[in-house]
Amino acid sequence: MPVKTDLRPETLGLVSVTMQAITHIAPAIAALFFTQFLVTLSGVTAPLAYLLGVLIVLMLGNTLIQFSRQLPSAGGYYTYVSRALGSRAGFLTAWMFILYSPMAGGVVSGFFGFIAAGELKASYGWDVPWLWWLSVIVMGSIVAALQYRGIELTARTLLITGGAEIVIVLALAFTGFASSGPGGISLAPFNPGNIGAGTAFGLSGFTLAIVLAVQGLTGWEAAAPLAEETKDPKRNVPRSVLLSIIILGVFLVFTYWGIITGFGVDNIKGLTGSPDLPGLALARRVWGGGWWLILIAFMSSTLAVTLATANVSTRMWYSMGRNGAFPKLFAKVHPAYKTPTNAIFAQYGLTLATGLIAGAWFHPDVAFFLLTGLVLVLGVSFVYLMANVGVIVYYWRERHPEFNWLWHAALPVASSLVLVYALAESFPPFCPSQNCPVDPYAKAPLVAGGWLVVGILLLVYYAMSKREQWLKTAGAALGESEDDLATAKVGAAGASARA
Questions:
Q1: Gap between the Cα atoms of 83 and 80, Å rounded
Q2: 89, 190, 381, 414: most buried by Cβ count inside 10 Å?
Q3: d(C-alpha 491, C-alpha 495), whole Å
Q4: Measuring CA to CA, how many Å separate 51 from each of 31, 37, 97, 485, 492?
């Protein structure tokens, strides 16, 4: 029996799925909340570091493009890795993915409430320390309601919220150029001769800034799990991946350049030493009372990224429930709205739990940087590395006549080496104590490693309890049947023999 979707097919066009990927990257958050740290590391050349980071992300995006051209599925990486490396490897990839999209919305919502409370107190004297947990509940509830009512409403919401944050942040960047600080409008941020100048970190700081730029652009893969609801997914999903990386890459490079110009290319210490977020500080100086538009951009970005990450998560829950890797109840679809209702309820509960528990345990700002900046890095790096290995194996075995040494070997290997370097820089295994991450950030590898062990134990339980029927269809994509999978396995064996 062919693998068919119970979701609403042929619903989303190229614009909608591209905005899904763009909002998953969270443009306003990426542009405004990491500026100070990146400039501290790389000085005036932070835009150049981001530009190089975009090129590396394009290499990572190539892997998803190659897979999505052949295997459209709500499972996304779960389907891709299952097909290429086996169902158990696909399960572990999806399991580690839980540390990424499913966990993000709650802590981002809590962080927005924390920032908004601080600004309201500083500007108007309003003391609302409870705003962070209210933000988690309100954002999570809005997202669940939108998802329940249908993917069309979700897509329209992403277009509005994503468009609003992009317009506001771009306006701030243009204002930075119009009201430039010392040094005026300059190409100094793109001059390789300035790398390491004026910073205490030199070339190593610039290199680390590139790594952080790569991490800051994660989210471009978010269109893939909507493939079963996308028009012509084999064409539009790959295009959306490429478009989202290029659009957001240009947007972030331009925004960093504009904010640095607003402070002054000759006044980098003024930016790195700003007591307020540089974007907010610049808005207060050039917009006066209109600075609150930055909070509007942050609110739009928070709602959009919470919605986009929930879209990814619920489609993955649905796909895994459909083939039996997760309980079948996750595959239930609303008869009218064609949305995975139980998957939505599960994600809603996870959003509230992670946002409220992590915020109360660590504090909302610490939880944000711990879960989205460190644990997320480990989880998504595992996913990207497995996919890079998988795309090589898949094209070599199943589609050998189409195998290309650049697209299916060189770029996956090169981007994997960058990821390994990023992990070594983020969590140096033999670092001097003064350079090691401090608690609770130092515990991020333990959290990710423990989560992986739990996933392995779950697979052992499946094997011991003879609950492995799902292994047969884990790698099936839209329109494929079990016979197609069997044929693919025979072809893979033949290709291996020929090799």
A1: 5
A2: 381
A3: 6
A4: 13, 16, 26, 41, 39
Which ranges of 264-375 does DSSP label H, i.e. alpha helix?
268-272, 278-287, 292-323, 341-362, 364-367
Six-digit token string for 414:
């090169």
Q: What predicted TM-score, i.e. pTM, was given to this entire model?
A: 0.90
- Residue pair 178/259 in contact (Cβ under 8 Å)? The answer is no
Q: Encode pLDDT of 162-181 as tens digits.
A: 999 999 999 999 999 999 99
Summarised one tens digit per residue, pLDDT across range 9-18 is: 999 999 999 9
Asked whether residue 432 carries a pLDDT value surpassing 60, the answer given is no
- Structural domains in the chain, sorted by start: 14-428+440-498 (1.20.1740.10)
- Residue type at 109? S
Q: Both tokens of residue 312?
A: 């990814």
pLDDT in tens, 289-320: 899 999 999 999 999 999 999 999 999 999 99
Residue at 130: amino acid letter: W
